[in-house]
Amino acid sequence: MTRANSEGSVTVVGLGPGDPRLLTESARAALDAAQDLIGYHPYVARVAEREGLIRHSTDNRVELDRARHALELAVSGRHVAVVSGGDPGVFAMAAALFEAVEHGPRAWRALDIRVEPGITAMLAAAARLGAPLGGDFCALSLSDNLKPWEVVTARLEAVFRAGFAVALYNPISSARPWQLGRALALAAEILPATTPVIFARAVTRPDESVRVLTLAEARTAPADMATMILIGTATTRLIEREGQVPFVYTPRSVAGR
Ligand code: SAH
Fold first, then answer.
1. Distance of alpha carbon 116 from alpha carbon 102, whole angstroms
2. Which positions, given as ranges, span the membrane (predicted)?
């Protein structure tokens, strides 16, 4: 993909879950072509420094400012890469960028704007265990920064009752210490206490840890911001292995088929 030098561009790039080998070639090419790199500082830090690349790292929670900054740079003719962990469309920068475009100056719509997908945490975590998301599943962010907590619980209840496996992003932070406990308590009202729950922390990074628990055990298990939680269904299976984390899979078929 060649781009005219006179016109700027913005590419929102998914960096994958951590291991640089999980960055797509296409994402790497977008990073190599960038003149400006914008993102939350741990993600910017994952991209090697090189001559001709200006790094603009920012704090978390300023996504819209970051998006506008990227678009302004592109208008001035720069080639900008906005980076997110995992996939940029999953609770990350891509939606913030398009929100800025929708509400911003008309000229932003004419810019060359692209999204480079990445391997989202949910898929990297699931792959470690086997196929816990092998049937129907959904993904939810447990953060109530951008939506009311009542909406989070209503959605959780609907997915538990419908029999989806659920990937929970943003399960906990110092500002949101109690939400995960409530979510697991709600799960325990609807699902069997033996339902497998996976706590996958820092998947594909050097400090990775993955635990397979029952729903009953999960309610007291520690988690942090680098943790993703996969809650299985009533049909999710465990295959025990001597001295190793069990395989976990959710069968593709559902009773009646
Ligand atoms: N865009 C990212 C998600 C951003 S939300 C993606 O597609 O993966 C941030 C949340 O993602 C974290 O709180 C955590 O729940 C999860 N997460 C991101 N990277 C992770 C990793 N390597 N291992 C486990 N969970 C991760």
1. 20
2. none
